[in-house]
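Next comes the chain:
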Amino acid sequence: MDWRAYESEFLSSFREGKEGFLERELDLEFEAQISFFFEMSPIQDAFRFRARHLGRKMAVLLIDEEGNLERENLSKFIGRLEEGIYPLGPRREGDSMLYEHLLFCLKKLRDEKSVWNAILKFSPPLSSKRAEEVVKETLWPESIRVLQTFHIRRAALAAWLTLLRQTTGSCFATAPGILIQKKPIQFFKDLDEILSTGQLKRVFGSKEYAVPMCPSLGLGELTFPLSSKEQLAFSPGLIVALSAAKFFRMEGPLISKVEPLERALEDLEEIANPEQILRDLTLKKEGLTKEDVADEEYLAKIQMGPSIAREGAVFYQRPTPRGQKVADWRKNFNVACMTFQALTDCALLRVWEYTIASFCDVKTDFAKWNLYISLGMHTDHEGGIADFLYRTIDRKLKMANEEIMKFQNLYNSAIYVVRSVESFLPGAGEAQRYELQARLSVAIHEAELALNERDRYARQAQAMAGFFSDLLKYFDEKLQEYFQEVFDPSISERGGDLFEDTPAGFRLLYKHGRSDASAWELIYDEKGYIRSLRSFFEAVEGGIQIPEGLGESFVSEVMTELIQYIQEKEFLERAKRRSESIGRKTPWAYVSGGTMKNLVEAYWERSEPLTSSPFFPKNAMNLLSLLSKETKRENLLIQSPTHAFILRLDLMPENAERKAEENRAAVKNWRCDEEIQEYICHSLSQKLRSSEKALFLHLLRQKPVAASPMQLREILIDALKTVRQESDASLFIDSHLYEYLFLLPGNQIGDALSAILKPVLNEKISQKISEVHASFMGAYDLHQTAKSILLEYFQKPYEKVDWDLKIASQMRKLGFSYPHLIQFAETNWSGWFFGFVPNPFTGQTELWRLNRIGSQGFPMGQKWLSPNNDRPWIIFPRQAEYN
């Protein structure tokens, strides 16, 4: 299918058709143009761009510059959305989800006064400069100098109207977040608390727990790995980011910047990811190198070192020409990165999602903290805090015991003298008596002194014995007060496939013992780690309860030795090793699977655990059978061993197991001759890069014609592995054939299209059908072709009928695709659902991700379901528990 021609037809329909209120006010023609470029480039997500665009544009139109609600616009938007708005453009099967979400929110805003009252609470001042930046980034590309009330309200409304979908490995927060977004009062309460106080608070396990506003959106798609320059010049993110960084002139359409960007990319020696591209191109514009930046950073460190700063007044030094260039570059580079992300992400919505993600790591047991392990708070941890304190106090205890023995011996000696003198006194003369009495007085005094010192050291030793455990308990308590481990999206990112869930990243936070979140400090390196520990022990020393028998000097000595010890290289190295021994990255940052159950219980302040139903599916049919027995309810939380998402059993058809068998039977009828094999191979090559196509086709032509579907699959896998070195080539091959399994020869395509479009078939549509020419056509191309004919016929980009769904249903009835669509969950990913599909080659029912209408799909692979699975899937069946 000619996708570019179809997209061009969709764009021209905006100009040829009658423009409606929604299309005009939401600038849907601009949205379609940008989406077209997203589809052509290999990075960033067109679906999330549209979600963000619609949410922001509608928020601006609904709140005026006085901060009031534009009720007339609200009524118009609701009226238009209630009529139905379904795009006729290509690859828009999931967009109905965006408009359904908008309609849900707008009706709530119209019908429930409490929703608008919640929005009215948003006003300056905000908690921090970062909070102000988040609001401005949310309303980008609007340029805001002075933040006003209406800006904050618009940003809050935009965050609600933007459909939440997952980016990084934060599924444990995205899944419950999608449900919370449907509860506007709670959602706006969270946003207001984050913006006004910089934190969210909950009471969990009889203890108040506060998580700070997530300080960053991470790097997101900036780290998407790239291996080719092909089609990169069409990336709207790169074009807009470089324009914001003044690499291009801001004026002019996107298409005018494709060729200059293509030339600029050709000059780059390396293509790693979008961040590296933006860095290198902005450096080149300023006439700088990476070495220049590194040199200036080094000079900045040595020019204002602590020793220099202490010597006296600091005078302003004009930056060198190179220093000024580096400063200008850094500013432009940061703007470029922010703009790249702002194109597809609503900043405030993403900050809220990442903030509630920190609730997943609520641990009432300090022994489970990475900090506890890294510090060595158990005596078994060699070289740790507990071990050092034990050895230090034990050494002092031994010294005390030595003193006890010394003074006991002195006491014994003195008592011996006393008794000896006393034995001589009765027989002594008067002169000798005076001398003996003097010696007796001295011996008694020495005995008393020795006894007092012995008892003092004995009391000290006794106090020391209990002081160690008391001190550890005190530190345990204070460490939890001064430190926290919070979600950080920048740690979990590694680029690559969004659909391969990555574990969540967590970072250590030092709170300085303050409740004000703006004073809290995230720890990024070993210097910050040691500095925070030193600050902590200095801060809490004054609160140590000194047992009777120990003086302040003793505690001061122990704390001084401890502070000196944690600054030694040996302590840091051992702390790193202890963290690594439990699979942690560093003592201040680690990657771990976020626990949705913990998050939900903490967020909703539940004292009782969530009701859960664990089960152990061994294969897809086993999973389907288990789910079929569940009550048909929608919007339940569920987690597999690797992913948390939303169970939608209302999507699953009745008698799903029987229908899965009927789908399998349909696969068995597939046959492929040499001509069909050639077409499938050629169509697959169209999905490869230009540099890969020739080799791929060459390798295939060296192979004999496959005698069976399974043999064809092996041939395709071998060729693809040679070209791409992909470990999961089979998944890509299976996904491709899913679109081409029900392949129609050219002489049957016209009749098939006529049958599919029979409800609206007329002379004009028949004429359009007769103009379709292809040697073969698979199910997905057939669906899109039928929709493109309707686009040409209606001459408008949006229809009130869901033609995507209607065409797909008609194709299933006519036998042009699998007879049944079996879905059971939302994935959290843009426009994707989980469902069951018979593998096009093997015929075995498998777990796949599918688009809304089931016309495209991708197998989830062995990581999700395996006969050896010993980790449970878990359903949380009582929705009321997380309301």
User: Anything to note?
Assistant: Residues 305-311 have pLDDT under 50 and may be disordered.
